[in-house]
């Protein structure tokens, strides 16, 4: 492990943002991330950090990142956490664990799809993993936004915008919604079911609550992008 003089994690109200490799995230989505967010770059996600943001931690096996970019990040105060290429976790998994260790409770993931369907599916399921139940996670993947719902979440957007609700890791029990065209009132959603696909917002803010389980609220064209 190489250590630079990075700043410590701030109080728990601060957000950690994890930049991953893959397709760029629209600037409009990145503008929603607080300017003082603690920045974690997961390997080649270092190349996706928007200009002007300081990188606090770069983590991964560094098999797909420019060494010159790593050197520049260290010179600016980033810490490097190096892992072997033959490892059991994806770089995003390692980054989420790093956020947990530092005491963060809110995480934004930026990136994560670059044509590898297996990586995308693994990372999408990872967001809803029980291991990260203590994190409030929102992800921006290409033009989409994914909000992990564990008890309640507000889903903002434009009326008419698509929003799919997908159960992960087991049944999502007693799902209730407001502000969606096809409301749910205490229904269960099961993994692998298409019951929650292609709903639509009817208000600027929809609410989703569940009594048990985990949902991914997916807006495939977030903000009309």
Query: Which value, in Å, is the CA radius of gyration?
Result: 18 Å
Strand element count = 14
Strand content: 25-35%
Shape: globular
Distance between the termini: 39 Å
Structural class: alpha/beta
Please write the string of helix (H) and strand (E) elements: EHEEHEHEHEEEEEEEEE
Number of helices: 4
Poorly predicted regions: 1-6
Major sheet description? 10 strands, mixed
Trace the largest sheet across and list its strands.
4-3-2-1-5-6-7-14-9-12
Mean pLDDT: 90
Helical percent range? 10-25%
Entry keywords:
225 residues; alpha/beta; 10-stranded mixed beta sheet; 4 helices; 14 strands; 16% helix; disordered N terminus
Summarize the structure.
The protein has 225 residues and is an alpha/beta fold. The chain has 4 helices and 14 strands. Helices cover 16% and strands 31% of the residues.
Please describe the topology of this protein.
Blueprint: E1 16-19, H1 27-30, E2 38-42, E3 57-60, H2 67-75, E4 79-82, H3 91-101, E5 106-110, H4 117-127, E6 136-141, E7 144-149, E8 152-156, E9 162-167, E10 172-178, E11 185-189, E12 199-200, E13 205-209, E14 215-219
